[in-house]
Amino acid sequence: MGGREAALDAAAIVVERIGFRDVTIDHVVRESGVSRATLYRWFGNREGLLLALLQHLAGPYLERSGQIAVGLGPLEERLEQVIAGGIESICNTPWIHKVAQEGLLHDDFSIFLAAHKSITGALVRSMLEGAAASGQWTPPDALERLLEWLLHQMLVLGADDYATFEEVRQRVAIYIMPVLALPGGAQGEVAERLERIERKLDGLADRP
C-alpha cells in the first residue's frame, strides 16, 4: 500500500476516534508517521485531506456502482440502485452518517458536500447525460438544477436510519425516481401508452 493510502487510512482511524469536526493535520501526522510537509504536499490543507479521505472510503461503492451504471437492464432500475447505494454508503459509516444528519449545522459540511458531488454526483451525471444524449430521456428540468435537487434529496434520505438496503431502495423509488421520469418507470410507461393512443387516434383521423 502506498504512503498516500496509508495516510488516508490513518486519517480514517483518527476521524472514527475523535470525529470529523475535530480532526487536524497534526492528528494524522501522529497516527500515520507521515510528516506535515508531506501531507501538505499530497493534500494541500486539512480540507483537501478530508475530501480525499471521503473519496478514498467511497472506493468500494464507486467500483460496484460503476459496474451497475454500464451494466444491462432498464436505465431506471440501474440508476435507482446507484442512488440507493450512495445513500446506503452514507448510512453505513457512523461518522459520515452523523455529518449527513447535522447537515449545514456541521462546520465541515461543505467538504462533505464537495465529496458527495464528486463521487455520486459524477456517476449519476454521466448516466443521465448519456441517456439525454442518446435521446433515451428528456430531462424534466435543467440538468444542473435536477442534479442539485437529486444530491440534496440523497443527503436528506441519508440522514435517516434503515434496516435493509431494500428499504433504502423503496424510499428512492417513492421520493426520487418519479421526478426523474426515466424510460421504463411508471411515468414513462404511462407516457408511452398515451403516445400509442395518440398515434392510433391520428391514424383513425387520417382514414378517408
Structure commentary:
By secondary structure, this protein is an all-alpha fold. Helix content is 76%, strand content 0%. It has helices spanning 3-18, 25-32, 36-43, 46-57, 59-69, 75-92, 94-102, 109-133, 143-158, 165-175, 177-180, 186-206. Helix 4 crosses helix 8 (109-133) and helix 6 packs across helix 10 (165-175). Mean pLDDT is 89; it is low at 186-190.
| Major beta sheet summary | none
Specify the number of helices.
Answer: 12
The overall strand count is 0
SSE pattern: HHHHHHHHHHHH
In percent terms, what proportion of residues is strand?
A: under 5%
Rg, rounded, reads 21 Å
Layout of strands and helices, then pairs:
Layout: H1 3-18, H2 25-32, H3 36-43, H4 46-57, H5 59-69, H6 75-92, H7 94-102, H8 109-133, H9 143-158, H10 165-175, H11 177-180, H12 186-206
Characteristic key phrases:
208 residues; mainly alpha; 76% helix
